[in-house]
Design brief:
The chain is of the alpha/beta class. About 30% of the residues lie in helices and about 25% in strands. It has an eight-stranded parallel beta barrel. A five-stranded antiparallel sheet has the order 11-14-17-16-15, with no helix packed on it. A four-stranded mixed sheet has the order 18-10-1-19. α9 links the parallel β8 and β9. It starts with a strand and ends with a strand.
């Protein structure tokens, strides 16, 4: 195509959804996490496609992400994981479902919903079982139950928690402790309420590693996009997003000549470099410069030379048969985002979600 673009493969998405769905019991709901523009891809395209496949719930981080999905035509329930009081109006206007994670948020949303004359508005209770990021503590259960008895404005749709290291075999004992803690918290609510909220705690890695923690629903995030947090699982999944650019120009560099800003790279012999129209404004961090990162051209790795520029980067193509106009794969099929991100001690999540919105999205149907 001759331009920098992020190709989004819906066939790969269907494959990943089916693979994860097959690991979950038939009576267990599936929540698809589509926050951060669908992990850097296109949340609306992803959600609308998964809706057709029968996904039960969506999760976003913030209310405006849910608003965008609703305006795109998504009808499936949407959980807002980190609602802010200033956006409660967006939540109710677009029938989004907030996670209530503290006494402050619980009281403020209850009051706001009451002022809007809501009844039995669905909310989700988030409990902290070890991540220490967001969530009520176990000793908050009595306070919550008392507040619930006093109101008909809100109704608990689900109770959930978040695992810390379900991908790490060395933390198996801690993960099992989290599961046990959540089970105990949930039991208190199930025996105290006159209705039955559903329960969920598993992320992608837990779907794979802890089938005993499926409860009533699982939350699939990174796995839907093609990464399973281990090489073994990655082999069963397909990358949904492929970041592809093009060779704009090829230069012949003589010994001693430098490439890029601050003369950060100097040739030691006769070399060829290619300039690629993608840079740190597009999500390729300067940390990938100085030969740490690479792109793939015609199946071969071309290391980045010098510093990554705002709009461009340069790579060494001395031993690669290529020409101006050839495609360049940054990550995607045949060029793992896991491997590239590891060169700067990062993770695939960061690389995927960093792709700038100025990069053209091309949906492969």
């Amino acid at each position: 195509m001759g331009v920098t673009r992020l190709e989004i493969d819906l066939k790969a998405l269907k494959h990943n959804y089916s693979y994860l769905r097959a690991k979950v019991a038939d009576n267990i709901k599936m929540m698809a996490v589509v926050k951060a523009f669908g992990y850097g891809s296109d949340a609306c395209e992803i959600a609308l496609f998964l809706e057709k496949l029968g996904v039960d719930y969506f999760a976003v981080a913030y209310a405006d992400e849910g608003e965008i999905l609703r305006k795109a035509g998504v009808k499936t329930p949407i959980l807002v994981l980190h609602p802010q009081p200033d956006n409660f109006n967006i939540i109710i206007e677009h029938c989004l479902e907030p996670s209530l994670y503290s006494a402050r948020v619980f009281k403020e949303f209850s009051a706001f919903a009451k002022a809007q004359q809501q009844k039995n508005y669905p909310v989700h209770l988030k409990f902290n079982t070890g991540l220490n990021r967001l969530g009520f503590w176990e000793n908050d259960t009595d306070w919550i139950l008392e507040r619930l008895k006093e109101t008909t404005t809100i109704k608990v749709a689900s109770i959930f928690s978040h695992l810390v290291a379900s991908e790490d075999p060395k933390e198996r004992e801690f993960t099992q402790h989290q599961i046990a803690s959540f089970t105990k918290i949930a039991a208190t609510f199930l025996t105290s309420l006159d209705y039955t909220p559903f329960l969920h705690q598993s992320n992608t890695s837990a779907i794979i590693n802890y089938p005993e923690a499926q409860f009533d629903m699982v939350r699939a995030g990174i796995g839907l996009y093609g990464y399973g947090n281990s090489p073994e699982e990655d082999a069963h999944l397909q990358p949904v997003a492929s970041l592809i650019s093009v060779i704009s120009q090829i230069h012949a560099i003589e010994p001693g000549e430098s490439v890029g800003y601050n003369r950060a790279y100097k040739a030691t012999h006769y070399e060829k470099t290619a300039t690629i129209p993608i840079g740190h404004a597009d999500g390729i961090s300067r940390a990938y410069g100085q030969g740490k990162g690479y792109v793939t051209i015609n199946g071969q790795k071309a290391p980045i030379v010098g510093n990554v520029c705002m709009d461009m980067l340069m790579v060494n193509i001395t031993d690669i048969d290529c020409k101006e106009g050839d495609d360049v794969v940054v990550f995607g099929k045949g060029a793992s985002a896991v491997d590239l991100s590891a060169t700067i001690h990062s993770i695939s999540y960061e690389l995927l979600t960093a792709v700038s919105q100025r990069v053209k999205r091309v949906v492969l149907r």
